[in-house]
């Protein structure tokens, strides 16, 4: 039975339509050709029925990113007390 595969993975649409492929890619295409489907690209921001679990923000990564930003900021911006002490 034919079906539509709606994806926000633009590379997948390119991959399916590419004419020359490597061995591994060719094996993937051969496997996919067993199914009757059309790939339809739809940007992620236009998806209204996304998988909630795959869209959960990674809080650990965000915390590490914020800590790195804070360290960088603190290293590059002198503290107020040092500025005041230099002016005395």
From TrEMBL:
SUPFAM superfamilies: DNA/RNA polymerases. This is 3726_t:CDS:1. Signal peptide: none annotated. Residues 57-88 are annotated as: Disordered. InterPro entries: DNA/RNA_pol_sf, Retrovirus_Pol_polyprotein. Residues 69-88 have a biased composition (Polar residues).
């Amino acid at each position: 039975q034919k079906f539509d595969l709606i994806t926000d993975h633009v590379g997948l649409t390119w991959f399916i339509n590419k004419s020359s492929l490597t061995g591994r890619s060719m094996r993937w295409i051969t496997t996919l050709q067993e199914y009757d489907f059309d790939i339809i690209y739809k940007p992620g921001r236009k998806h209204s029925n996304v998988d909630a679990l795959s869209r959960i923000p990674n809080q650990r990564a965000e915390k590490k990113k914020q800590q790195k930003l804070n360290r960088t900021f603190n290293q590059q911006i002198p503290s107020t007390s040092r500025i005041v002490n230099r002016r005395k």
